[in-house]
Amino acid sequence: MNTLEKANVLIIDDNTKNIQIAANVLKSTNSYNIFFATSGEKGIDQLKMRQHCLILLDINMPGIDGYQTAQIIKNDPLYKQIPIIFLSANANKESINKGFEYGAEDYITKPFEESELIHRVKTHVELFMARKQLQVEVDDTKILLEQYKMVVDASALVSKTDIKGNITYVNDKFCKTSQYTREELIGQNHNLVRSPDVPKALYTNMWDTITAKNVWSGVLKNIKKDGSYYYVNSTISPILNSYGKIVEYISLRNDITKEVQLKKDIIATQKEVLSTLGELGENRSEETGNHVTRVALISELLAKSYGCSKKEVELLKMASPMHDIGKVIIPDSILLKPAKLTFEEFEVMKKHTTYGWEIFNKSTHTLLKTAALVAYEHHEKWDGSGYPRGLKGEDIHIFGRISAVADVFDALCSKRVYKEQWGLSDAIDFMTSQSGTAFEPKLIDLLVENIDEIVEIKNKFNK
Q1: What does the pLDDT look like over 169-182, one tens digit per residue?
Q2: Which of 150, 319, 381, 413 has the smallest number of CB atoms closer than 10 Å to its CB?
């Protein structure tokens, strides 16, 4: 150990001979810088001059004795961590116990053995240095954690709960966003900010996940104190102790309300554009623009009844107005012909499905790709006799199957350039006659079961 690495050891003894003996023994190890004082008062003054790793303290001294000196040192927060070894000729049990009561870590009787002194000092110096290094690491960790906390608090909505889910901590950002004060939140459950629109099954899954010591992540719709909504991208993690037992839960949330609203606006715009394009296609063929609205609403109704997911229902509703968009490419001489089409003309007309597919399928957006799918498959038939690819049964996408039923039924009940409007009973009879051939039987059953609601849609948008 070089000089810079040597530990400072303080010897306090009124007998300079004893100091010299102990100092010579310790210096022989070349491991320590030795400092000394001949009284308790002077010893305390020495502590103020430099940092020490160990104190060798005599008990019987004039002025304040060793016990009193030890008591003063241990009561001072600056020095109380420094280990004290008492040096005394009194080796009786009472003296030893009294030394420990006053804060000594060890006790060496005089005259001492050199090897005993060396090993006792070495042990306590190393323990002190280890504790000191550990404390430095702990302090550094606390500083780092505090900085991490500042960063997280500045960027996220933070809350902690006990193992029962009761809130124990919320940061300022959480309070500001939710509009609740810290006092209103602490001790409450997060039910206070949960939106009733969120399915209970989601929260059940969340609780099952975190109680199983896993991290849960997802988007939540929450409600503010004033009743307005906000959306958060939430990550909830269980905090475990050294035994692997959950002691609390912590949640970090990022407010994504603006992003969600922007996405909704984009979808609304896409929906409006698709609806307008659908009406444009219908108007070009001299058919009512409300046809696409009715097909969209009938498709929505059938999709719900069929058991499609909420997301699928919404996608189909928005995309279905594009089922005939490919007709904008069909020549007017064929599209507007009042008489029956020739075989060659019908082959051209059938291409509107492929044209619709080609218009939208290049897009990477789910909505537009769904529009491409509807345009491509709404003339396929359940028995495989449809076009353009002759798909059969469930090989036809459910969106294509539903759009086919909605489109044909509404077309039958509407006046077209090539035909008069059919009565409701005739249209139903035709649709049921095509069950299992042109249309999926289950969808025809759903059409009949929901005919009253479908008639309401037709009456509301009858122009």
Answers
A1: 999 999 999 999 99
A2: 150
